[in-house]
Design goal:
Layout lengths: L7 H22 L6 H20 L11 H18 L1 E3 L2 E7 L3 E3 L1 H23 L5 H23 L4 H18 L3 H24 L1 H8 L1 H11 L6 H12 L23 H34 L3 H25 L17 H19 L3
Antiparallel strand pairs: 1-2, 2-3
């Protein structure tokens, strides 16, 4: 059924992710109130695989024609979230439906942003068939505004990590599209000046900074800038569990120490403690194979829309993979970024599976 051998680099790692995710969440759930989260993760995975299989022979690549509607729908959800969202751990990132679960719109907004950017590229190509500095600058500004709208709404939740992902997606897609490199150089200068001014204001006028931006934002910045000295119990326990795991780990359900947010942010630490160095190599190897399969497909395809979608998708998950694993081992600040396909979460998992379904379908049913 899978005509292209590259799909094996995508589908086989997905199956391994499923096994790794379920076993790790089971281990993490033993320190929680129950194991119902394991059942939910299994159901979300089965639903995701079902979506991929059912859409293989259906022509859904035209979903890109609905890109702007999906983009507007996603922003509408982000606005409603600020009004009606449930506040959990100081953030309004989820709609909570009693007896059903929670839904995080920003997870799907990442995919909607990718599709919106692709549609913008299509329209721009028709209007400006010849690339000039002026035309590229117009494209850059349009994509920038398109990215800023959900970024501001998401920042207000607050969810800084997701905002970073939005901008990474758009800038990588613009880079691959091939806009003039001088625009990126100008952007770098402007961002450097703004960031330098921002940090100068933060370090030298903290009272005024708090008055302007609020205490919550001040402590978010403080946590990022001073993360190595303020890691807290999460990182301390995570590192202790990983270091003690040895070559083969402690086994399923035998995490030696309590790790806060073990089923989401620190799922990597749970898996590493259960399966040791060997298991960690298998997980990282699966991640590398999966990313390689997607990048190879992007390199192979002649469909520009598919190339942009894949590279936007890979940017999204690659950043999250590096950030999550990095913060689990103390190399990067703790930002609340989960590990794609492994951490518990229906919204994130289903958004990734929709992305895979779209990519596979695009390749099977070329325009």
């Amino acid at each position: 059924m899978l005509k292209n051998k590259l799909y094996y680099f995508i589908i086989i790692p997905l199956v391994l992710f499923f096994i790794i995710s379920v076993t790790s969440i089971y281990s993490a759930s033993l320190n929680l109130s129950g194991t119902e989260i394991v059942t939910k993760q299994v159901l979300w995975y089965l639903l995701g695989f079902g979506i991929i299989i059912l859409t293989m022979r259906k022509k859904i690549s035209k979903v890109s024609d609905m890109a702007f509607y999906l983009y507007l729908f996603g922003n509408g959800l982000l606005i409603l979230l600020l009004i009606f969202g449930a506040q959990i751990n100081g953030s309004k990132c989820w709609f909570v439906f009693p007896g059903i679960g929670s839904f995080q719109p920003s997870e799907f907004m990442k995919l909607f942003l990718i599709l919106a950017n692709v549609k913008i590229f299509e329209i721009h190509n028709k209007k400006y068939p010849k690339s000039t500095f002026k035309s590229d600058l117009i494209l850059f500004l349009v994509v920038l505004v398109t990215t800023l709208i959900p970024s501001i709404l998401t920042f207000l939740q607050p969810d800084t990590g997701m905002v970073i992902i939005y901008f990474l997606i758009s800038f990588v897609m613009l880079f691959v599209y091939g806009i003039k490199k001088s625009i990126f150089f100008i952007l770098f200068i402007i961002v450097s000046l703004l960031l330098g001014s921002f940090l100068y204001f933060y370090f030298n006028y903290q009272d005024n900074f708090i008055s302007l931006f609020g205490t919550s934002f001040f402590y978010r910045i403080d946590r990022i800038l001073d993360w190595s000295n303020k890691s807290g119990m999460q990182l301390t326990n995570a590192l202790a569990a990983i270091k003690a795991a040895g070559l083969f780990g402690f086994g399923i359900g035998k995490t030696p120490i309590y790790i806060p947010e073990a089923h989401t942010d620190f799922i990597f630490s749970v898996f590493a403690s259960n399966f040791g160095l060997i298991g960690t190599f298998i997980l990282i190897g699966s991640i590398v194979a999966f990313d390689y399969g997607l990048l190879s497909l992007a390199n192979k395809t002649k469909n520009k829309n598919l190339k942009y979608i894949i590279l936007g998708f890979v940017t999204m998950i690659l950043y999250q993979q590096i950030q999550n694993i990095g913060m689990n081992v103390g190399l990067l600040p703790i930002t609340g970024i989960t590990l794609p396909f492994i951490s518990y979460g229906g919204s994130s998992l289903l958004s990734y599976m929709f992305g895979i379904a779209l990519i596979v379908n695009y390749d099977h049913n070329k325009n």
